[in-house]
Structures are given as C-alpha cells and as structure tokens.
Design a protein that fits this description.
Elements lengths: L1 E6 L8 E6 L2 E5 L8 H9 L10 E3 L5 H4 L2 H6 L6 E4 H32 L10 H7 L3 E4 L5 E3 L1 E7 L7 E7 L2 E5 L22 E5 L10 H17 L3 E5 L5 H14 L8 E4 L1 H12 L6 H8 L9 E4 L2 H6 L7 E5 L9 H8 L6 E4 L8 H6 L4 E4 L2 E4 L3 E4 L9 H11 L3 E5 L3 H13 L3 E3 L6 E4 L1
Parallel strand pairs: 3-4, 4-5, 5-6, 10-11, 11-20, 12-15, 12-16, 13-14, 13-15, 16-19, 20-21
Antiparallel strand pairs: 1-2, 1-22, 2-3, 7-8, 8-9, 9-10, 17-18
Helix pairs in contact: 4-5, 4-8
C-alpha cells in the first residue's frame, strides 16, 4: 500500500494525494494552488500523475483549495466517480462554475495585453463548460454510509464547513483516517467534529499547528467593539470573506449582536453573487446544522434578519462606494486575490475612518497576507495604494482546529503513524515536534511527488 502526495506539502493550498491499495488508485482532493501567480499557474495546469489511471476520487469538502481543479482533472481524462456529501455537491454546482468564470475572465484580461504585444494568447485553466461537465461525476453520500469500492470508506462529520467530511478508509487490513480540514468544537451553525475509534494511520491537516485560537465568545466581543468604533467614526467595515462558511458565520455573529440589542441595525451588504448562492445552499441543508442554528433558521433569524442586503448586480455593488453612512460590506475573495473585494479595498483602503476586518487564514504571497502583516502600501489592480484604514484580525472565527485541538484529536484516535499535510513549514514543523515529544511517529511530505510505503 502506498500514499503519494501531490499537494498541500508544507503549504495550505493544492490539496491532493493518491492512495494505492487493494488494486485501486484513489485520488483524495483535487485543489487549486494559490499564491505566486506564475508558480501556481504551472502547478495547476499539469498533473504529476495520469488522471485517466484514477479509479475514483473522494472529496472531503467544497473549499477551492481542495476541489478547485476538478474541472481540469476531468478535462485531462478522469472518467470515474467523485464521492462526497450531498451538501458539497450542491455547493460545488455554484463554486466550480464561479471558479471557471474567473479563469475565463483572467485569461481574457491577459490576452488583451498579449494581443497588444503580438504574443500568443493563453487558454483559461478551464472553462464554464468544463466545470459543467465535471459536475456529472459527483456521487452524493450521507455520513456513515459505508462504501465498498476495492477499498472500504466512510464519511464522518469533520465539523469544518457545511458538508465537510473526514474519510475513514479500511484497506489492506488497516484503518486510515484522512481528516480533510478538521473543525473546532462549539462553532456556530454546524456540529462538532466526529472522533472515530482508534486508527492505524492518520493523515491530518496542520493549518494552525503552531498557534491557539481565542474563545469564540472573545471574538464576538471584539467584533462588537470593532462595529461600535466604526459607527462612532462613521466608517465602513470591509470584510474579505470566503463565500463558503466564513461569510455565513459572520452574518450569524452580527445578527446575534443585533438580536441581543448590543448594536444598532447597521446595514450589511453581502456583495458576492457566489456568497448569495452559497447561503441559499445553507438554507436548503438544515440537516447539517447544530440544534441552536436549526431553531433560529426555522424562525428566519439567521440569514435574512434585519437590514441585510444580498447583492448580485454589478451596478448595485459600485453604488456602495458612493454611500457615506456606516455599513458592513462582506465580499469575496477571502484572501483578497480576485473578485469584488478588490474594488472595495481600492475605494476604501486610503480612508482612515474605515476598517478592514480579516476573519480567515491568509496564504503566503496573497494581498490578504500583506494586509495582515501590516504593509503600509499595497498593489491592487497593478496600482499602489497607501493603507490608511485600520486592519483588524479575528482568527477566532477560524473553522480550523488549532494546535491543542489537533493534539487532542490525535490522542483520541491513537494512530501508529501520522502524516501531516496542509500547513506552512513553520506550523507543520512545530506540530510535528510536539507530536514526536508525545511519542508518535510523524512524517511530513517535503515536496510534491513524495511517496510512502505504509
């Protein structure tokens, strides 16, 4: 039995690995690499394995760094089934088409420049048509619905985002658990992560392997203070947010403050067509909610409460720049790499009355990371802007397990061997040291194409 790692090796994007067992080649995840544009483009365009040789695929959840290169996989010859949860299937009907649209528009923009220079045009990584073709490969499963396809596998609730799954595999007499992205206990909306019985091999994410999250209640207090200050100085709060889960959690948190009477009914603009569509998927899948969120959803007090406005039209989006009153704008993308958030940043970053609120992980070499690191001057659409707006960071809203959560999870599943993926070098090495100090055997794939016999 072999595991071949083709992504998320000492980085947090491009998740991808193959398990060879019981005569099957099974692909887990097929995510997009993000970061330095040229490097990411090269990694995304060609696969270091033959997609035609994959027997089937298992997908843990819908985030683009785990799912975003599936249309290209199908385009390159993959012909089999992709197993995941029903909520993930419904989310990707929007997310993959949105991703394809962005690739088409990026290629169109680049080709205009190339034409002026007399250079050969480029093709988008994949098109909307490619994304639509990929959707027919998805096979929805429920949690705990055991499947036998050469190997036996079962999806468990990972507690990370709507429909996210851990994958429990039984092959060659061993129990292998892939965490996907592991969630935290007591987060709003979705249930806590499941913890299976003892496993032999654990393949685990390590995004926050060197740090701890504050209590979610502290995050709500910090959010309350940020909003109160913005209202007092008549400024805007610009929140770059992933369309999936983080945006819904922030809406939920702000509405809770309004319902409790702790802040006035400030206008909230959800300016992302994808976020609007994803929110509808949430509403259509209450079976994934925890008890409290399910009750509020039935009372229509989660996503449509108060002065909340969902924007799809471009002209409505542009009109927000002319509004002077305090407001909250939630827009994609979460790492500030593309989408409408760039226009809002461009128009608001040089005003010291405004606040940029970062609520999610920011990968290296992204605009979001540069804002978190406090750079005073940043480039947006190729032009330089002075950052005068405040930048606030609330990692407490993270849907990823932190260092202590990960260590406690390991103790409960008692693996004989651990593979750490989906973490930058500092985070992954710190967690590795901690786990080795506890007596566990830990391996860290160093680069794309690392192969282990297990």
């Amino acid at each position: 039995m072999k595991i071949e790692f083709y992504g998320a090796t000492k980085e947090v994007t491009g998740s991808k690995f193959i398990l060879e067992a019981d005569g099957a080649h099974v692909l887990f995840e097929c995510g997009l690499f993000q970061g330095k544009r040229k490097e990411a483009e090269k990694k995304n365009r060609e696969f270091p394995f033959n997609p035609e040789e994959i027997d089937f695929m298992i997908l843990s959840h819908a985030h683009i760094d785990h799912s975003g290169n599936i249309p290209n996989l199908v385009k390159r010859g993959f012909k089999s089934d992709i197993f995941t949860t029903s909520a993930t299937v419904d989310l990707l009907k929007y997310m993959l088409l949105d991703s394809a649209y962005i690739h088409e528009k990026d290629a169109e923009y680049v080709n205009k420049k190339k034409k002026k220079k007399g250079e050969e045009p480029i093709e988008p990584l994949y098109t909307v048509e490619d994304a639509e073709k990929s959707l027919v490969h998805f096979k929805p499963l429920s949690y705990h619905d055991k499947q036998n396809r050469n190997i036996t596998f079962t999806l468990l609730d990972a507690g990370h985002i709507l429909g996210s799954a851990e994958v429990l595999i039984e092959a060659d007499g061993k129990r292998i658990l892939f965490t996907g992205d592991l969630g935290r206990n007591n987060l709003p909306i979705i249930r806590d992560p499941e913890v299976p019985e003892k496993v032999d091999i654990l393949i685990m994410e390590s995004t926050y392997g060197d740090r701890l999250h504050g209590d979610i209640e502290l995050a709500e207090k910090a959010l309350l203070e940020i909003i109160r200050i913005a209202i007092k100085r008549k400024g805007k709060i610009i929140i770059p947010s992933f369309a999936l889960e983080r945006a819904q959690e922030i809406i939920y948190a702000i509405n809770s403050l309004i319902i409790d009477g702790r802040i006035p009914d400030i206008p909230i603009y959800v300016d992302s067509p994808l976020t609007v569509n994803v929110t509808e998927v949430f509403i259509n899948h209450p079976e994934y909610f925890d008890e409290e969120a399910y009750k509020l959803l039935r009372e229509d007090r989660v996503f449509h409460y108060g002065n909340i406005n969902y924007i799809k039209d471009v002209e409505q989006s542009k009109a927000l720049n002319d509004k002077e009153e305090p407001m909250i704008i939630i827009s994609a993308s979460g790492m500030c790499e593309h989408g409408r958030i760039l226009h809002h940043l461009k128009n608001n970053i040089e005003n010291d009355r405004n606040t940029i609120l970062i609520v999610g992980f920011q990968a290296k070499n992204t605009l979001g990371r540069r804002l978190v690191e406090g750079e005073d001057e940043v480039n947006i659409f190729g032009e330089s802007y002075k950052r005068r707006a405040d930048v606030k960071v609330l990692n407490e809203f993270s849907a990823h397990a932190d260092r202590n959560d990960l260590i406690e999870f390991v103790k409960k599943v008692e693996p004989e061997r651990i593979f750490l993926v989906h973490g930058e070098e500092k985070q992954i090495e710190s967690l590795k040291d901690a786990l080795e100090d506890l007596g566990y055997q830990v391996d860290v794939p160093e680069e794309i194409g690392t192969v282990y016999e297990i």
